[in-house]
Each structure stands twice: as C-alpha cells, then as structure tokens.
Amino acid sequence: QKVYLLPGPTKPCQAVLDCYGQFYGSSDLEVDAFAQDYDDAACLLRELLTIPQDSSVVMMSGEGMVGLWAGLTNTLRPGDKVLSVNFGSYGKGIGDMAAGLGADVEYFGEGDTEPLDRNKHWKQLESKIRSIQPKLVTLVHCETPSGTIVDHDLLELVGNLCDEVGCLFYVDMVSSAGGVCIDLSANKVDIALLGSQKCFSLHSDITILVLTEKAWKVVEENKDKSGYDALLPFKNVVDPTFSGERLFPYTMNWSSIVALKESLTQLKNEGFDKVYQRHIDVAEHCRNRITKIGLELHVEEDYCSPTVTAIKVPPTIKWEDLSSELAKKQIYFGRNYGTLAGKVFRIGHMGTQAQLHQVNKGVDALEEILSCGQQ
C-alpha cells in the first residue's frame, strides 16, 4: 500500500470521500439548503481559528492559489506599496505576484537561507513597516519548502503593528490552518488565506479567505474589480444574517463544502487542542528519527513547523535516485523547488498523515535505503 508523506495534497478519509460521491443539487436552485451547509462549515472554521465575529468567511471553488490571487487583486492598484516578508520561496512568490499587478513591492528577509526570528528580525521589520507605510504586508505562516513556521507571538506583533499604521495584514495559512493553533482574534490578520488539500485533507478544490471589516473597506474601494476571483459579490451572501436571497456569484461546489464540513466536524470531535498536539507529537517523532539516522534538518528545530519537516539531501545520494528508491517501496516524500531543489526534501505530516505509524513506515524505508548505500 502506498504511503504518501507529501506536504499536500493529503489523502481524504473515507467519510470525506463519501461526501464527494454524492450529488446535493444546485446551489443556484436550492439556495437556502446550500447556504445552511455553507454556514455550518463557516461556523466550524470560526471555532477552529477563533475568527472575530465581524469578520467574514469566503469559500471559493478552486485551488488555494485562487485565494492568494484574490487577496491581492481585490485590494491592490498599480503603484500601491507592498512589503513582502520573504523568508522562503512562497513569501517571495507572493511579493512577485503583487509586483506583477503593478504594486511597488519591497522585500524584507533572507529568503530560503534563514527563518524569520523574533529576536533577530522584529525590530528591523517594525522599522521597515513604519518607514514605508505600505498598503499591504504579506507573510507566509508556514513555508513548506523550508519547513518553517512563524511563531504566534511574532504573528501577533506584526498584526498589531499593521493595525496601528493602518495597513492590511495578508497571511498565507494554507499549510498551517487545521494543524497549528491559530487565533485570528488575537493576531489581527486582515486577510487569512487557507486551502483545502493540506491539514483539512480534502481535494484541492476549495480556497478560503477570512476577511476583516478593514479588508472589506479596501475591497469596496476597488469595486470595479470583476472576474472569477472578485470578492465583493460574496460580501452579502456569506453573511448568515443577510435578509436578501443568498444566491452565490457562481454555481458552487456543494459536495466540496459538505466534505469540508465533515472534515472540520472530525477535527472538532477529536478536540482541536488534541489535533494540534497530535501534529506536534508526530513532528517531534519524525525529526528525532531523522536525526538519529544521521540526516540533517534544513533549519534548527525551534523554527520547524508541526506540519512539515524539511531535510537536507545526504551527500551520498542524489535526490532523484533517493526518490526513485523510495517509490519502489511505495513511499512518497515531497521534492523541493527553486534554490532548494535537489538539496532539501520534505516529509509532510499534516492532516490525515499526522500519524506515527505512517511516519515510521516512511523513515524505516529511508533508513534502509541509506544503509544499503553505505555498505
């Protein structure tokens, strides 16, 4: 049996797959019934992420990139200042996306070479935000290529500063939400971006944005924005108290919303705190085993994410050969990209993959391959 330990997509459980296998009707026709399922899923997300009451949950059909783009295209105009916090390829990538829209982007950070550290970088970051007064600050909570995560306290410091200076705080939480404790009421993220295929263990078919009232005001200023990723048409229909007809902007993927509701219900039944602890325990076990067999983590363990571990490819074997040997044993780890391609590989222990027995199977195979190569 194949063992997938990728940093997404993760394998849906059978109950979630059963949701995908049913036809629920048309969200354009059975408007109230669809809205109820949507509200149920949104309510669970509110509990999971401690979403402020006046923030909105927008679920769109499409992979997580749809939401990443929507958060930019609905808030930025050419010439707007953006500060891209760049401590990994995804952080830089979001800055590049903003630049492609004509924004005036400045980058802050060390790229893949060093994780974001509160003691080392906070004062510099604070000074940069105060000096350039950007319209938008972008940050990636969990950089899966480098296996790092931004700690809660630093996230809160940046959020409070953005609130103070009046800029929007845009955070990619695609690879952390559902596996790491996130409190959107405390960290004041204005645009939180989530995906379905990571810790929620769904197909890659839903993108989720959580927007504050401050973010909506900027979206409303860009009211001429149109197209599939336009957010303004969602503003009223995602509000359970809206008195009008809750007809969504396009035909929604109803089965995916029900699947999300099932996944979130399972997390709630397990207990959100227990879910987070499971991810922490499996991550620590994974990294202990990795170091015991003589491999080196890409970053120090203090910066490592509970959802993914990045490991340096040993000098005794090329990544392509290692990946091929693992595949013969039906074990699949994540490759890497950009400056880390061929140098660092990844073990994803998120969602349904955050299980000790699954990680053990993967590391057992890895250890066997490397031991044979040393003989």
Could you explain the architecture of this structure?
The protein is α/β, with parallel strands linked by helices and 375 residues long. Helix content is 42%, strand content 15%. It has helices at residues 14-20, 31-49, 64-73, 89-100, 118-132, 152-165, 184-187, 213-221, 254-270, 272-292, 319-328, 356-374; strands spanning 3-5, 56-61, 81-85, 104-108, 136-140, 142-143, 148-149, 168-172, 191-195, 206-211, 308-312, 331-333, 344-348. The strands form four sheets. It has a seven-stranded mixed sheet with strand order 2-10-9-8-5-3-4, with helices on both faces. Strands 1-12 form a two-stranded parallel ribbon. Strands 6-7 form a two-stranded antiparallel ribbon. Helix 4 links the parallel strand 3 and strand 4 (104-108). The chain is globular, with a radius of gyration of 21 Å. The model has no long low-confidence stretch (mean pLDDT 97).
The overall pLDDT average reads 97
Strand content: 15-25%
Structural class: alpha/beta
Number of strands: 13
The unreliable regions are none
Radius of gyration, taken over Cα atoms and rounded to an integer in Å: 21 Å
- Can you list the strand order of the major beta sheet? 2-10-9-8-5-3-4
Largest sheet properties? 7 strands, mixed
Tertiary shape: globular
What oligomeric state best describes the polypeptide chains here? single chain
In whole angstroms, how far apart are the ends? 28 Å
Total of DSSP H or I helical runs spanning 4+ residues? 12
What is the succession of H and E elements? EHHEHEHEHEEEHEHEEHHHEHEEH
Share of residues in helices: 40-55%
